[in-house]
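Sat 14:20. Reprocessing the chain from the morning session after the first attempt stalled halfway. Input below, unchanged.
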Amino acid sequence: MKGDKAPGPDGFTVTFWQFYWDFVKEEIVDLFKEFYEQRSFAKSLNTTFLILIPKKGRAEDLGDFRPISLLGGLYKLLAKVLANRLKKVLGKVVSVDQNAFVRGRQILDASLIANEVIDFWNKHKEKGLICKLDIEKAYDSINWNFLIKVLHKMGFGSRWMKWIWWCISTAKFSILVNGVPTGFFSSSKGLRQGDPLSPYLFVLGMEVLSALIRRAVVRGFILGCSLRGRGRMEMDVSHLLFVDDTIIFCEARKEYLTSLSWILAWFEAASGLRINLAKSELIPIGEVEEIEEMVVELGCKVGALPSVYLGLPLGAHHKAISMWDGVEERMRRRLAIWKRQYISKSGRITLIKSTLASIPIYQLSLFRMSKIVARRLEKLQRDFLWGGGRMERKIHLINWEVVCTQKEKGGLGIQKIDLLNKALLGKWIWRFAFEKDIIWKKMIGVKYGQEGFGWRTNEACGAFGVGVWKEILKEANWCWDNIIFKGGNATVNEVWDSSLGQGGWNLRFARDSNDWELDLIGALFNMLRNFKISQEEDSVVWKGGGQGTFGVRHAYNLLVAPNTLAFPRKMQITFFYTVVLWEIVLALFRVHWVFPETVKEMLSHLGIEVFVGGNLGIPLSEAAIQCLTCPSPKPVFQVAVVEVSSYQLEVPNKHFCPSVAVVLNLTSDHLERHKTMKNYAITKCRLLSHMTNSKLGILPFGNKLLNEAMEELVNEVNLAWIGAFPGVKVDKEEKVASLRVPAIGVVSELKLGALNVMGTHNYYNAAVAALSVLGLDMGIDTEAISSTIEKLRVPPHRMQIVHKDSYGVTWIDDSKATNVEATYTGLLGLKEQKSVILLGGLAKTLEGDVGSSFQLLMWRDGCLSMKHHKGRECFCFLSGKCQVSNSQESNGFEQLVEPLKYHRCVITFGFSGPLIQKTLSDDGLSIPCFEAANLEDAVNCARSVARYGDAVVLSPGCASFDEFRNFEHRGKVFQELVFSSE
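Finished this time. Tokens:
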């Protein structure tokens, strides 16, 4: 029971009783016991407030209002218990012609049957009449004594009848006028709308009308529609009832209408239910003569097809676009209400999904919508999404196909109307195979014939007319592809088919049989043939999701085109900011939330110009050359992602003017290794801040030294940095947002015991950087940004298993770890794996990484000046000293002492090898440390010290330019050495 409905005279909602159940349950149980034994309760519990709800807009007359009863809380609990018991037996005491409130029957069943009857009459060119009856004030006028008599005839016991009598006869009403009760009065007939018992009691009363019509058909006073189908099967359909909506089918003969008028008169006299002839109508099918005289006989008006029954089209052609005019009109009326209100985009999305998209679902569940109508309705949704309530003509920033994809695939989760229609129609295919002994299935089976042991109907042949079921059958193929059969109580002989390659009855016995045993063997075969595999009935199982049962949502997901895009499934930010971030990322960046090979490709999707520096996509020098020497003017960059190592880039060029700039990888080892790095970082910030139109994002690894270097720039730019370790830290008092989230990834093939490899990845860093800067620019809470970033799908980890040799040693390439932080995070992931760690290299220089059209002129105090071959100076790089410094100053490798203690040993190599070895030894390294001249000697040394089950990991912790062009070249050489040394 819903707990938030309006309370009755006692003032208690259902939520109150649910919340305080432990406190009041004993008194309530005593009330139930008293009612069970004495068949009564205090009359004061059955008092009711009456409120009048308008049935339509601009209601003026009293008849335009519907009285709704607000019941007391205790009576509502009692009535709900009785209603739950009554609905369990309702299907056994009412006929199959009634489809309301009976488990397993749906309102759509009656509409399907009615349309198929009309289709049968039209295709066979038979004449018929449809009588649509309207019962006036149905709930309010039914006779109580009539109901009790019906309960008695149906076999309900005296105790039950006394319970029901007390519930309906002791009610007292008070009309609320401006919210104030006006005194109580009793009633002598009718059921309360709002009482849980009322719908079921009314259905029992309408069963009398159904029984009268059936008896008239049996005795020949009325002749309904006699459906004849394939296989010489027949079925009579004379009437359908859904609560007070009654439709009667009969042949076009005057005497049949005379009999029907007497039946309605008798029913009105007995039940108190009056037929409103002014709203009832007689609809002729085919060329019916003397229709005016027949209408006079019944006393109603003449109708025509197409009409409406239960809110759905009746007798409309399957391709008629006009049958959807009512749906479109309801959507436009709803939009007209919102037109006068300001609704945010997130609010519009919610209204589309909850209201606009739900308006056509009822009709979509039975009729196929044409593509023209679907486009019209989706246009209303699109215009409302982008143009607001006034439907202004605005640019649709994102393709509707993307909008309609699932949230985790980069869309908004709005369902496509045509696919939803297919899923809803597919449910009928499932119901025909799954449900048993129901009138609509029997009617369809008779009309079209059945195949496959009654699991499905034959193909619908002949010309289209109303064609409801014929349209539904178009969804049969994909539905049957997702349905499997579960064998039940069939015998072995029924399911054994030797023609299908199952073989014959060729049983082998342990010994040869005697002649006198042959009869016993034959009896055994006969017994086995009739043996039932299971006592359960045969059934079907839906394998498309939903635990074996068809679900529209699962079916819709099957029909949606496969999508490889990735998007955060859940975000810990408000829906408004989620929509803003979604729109910016998809419309501005046009990023489809898939991580390509390079960040340049990711951020320059669909023609967006992006500058990417460092080893993010293209080499730093190559990017600068492209920017400076491009023969034709390039458009202004929208986004710049620059990875800074120990280079200084100066590009005084008008083409480099991004709206958002992101700087990556200002790591602590850079700051500590180079004395001038502090000034270098400040210069870098100022340089890019002068080149950007709006905001600048600086995203290096967080460290105190860098914080101090950035302090004076806090008032000038938005700063953020990303750390390599899990956890979230936000400095709320400062303008600096510290987003410490794991820029890590684990690749499935990298499995070494309990290995959980962690480490940064430049592609991922760039994506995180871009989203962080955008989020800060929009004012999104930093905790929400970091939570969203954590849910992004990271690309494969930088570590790769190169080889597993015959000695049980696994060789791992982590040559992309070009700084201490990267090596540190990698070692943390290798904590459970005993390994030999190779460290070393050289502080970065530029030898071997310069474009061929440039010439190296000179080194001057660490400053590399480069000139074009024509002599014009283009740009310069600033770097630290070429040779490794022997300074006692910290170089960052001391932080590796702690994670290294879990491993076998360390091998240092290259120019930086001696310094790394000295640093580790001075800080108390507890494992052996060997020194090698170069990478080849290091690999040979590792081969000699590694034991079975160990891993040898190349994780240099510094640059590669001592003997290699770049880290990729170093990794390639490492792999060659691994295989050659074996």
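The chain has six domains: 14-314, 321-422, 424-485+538-563, 488-496+510-537, 595-796, 802-844+882-981.
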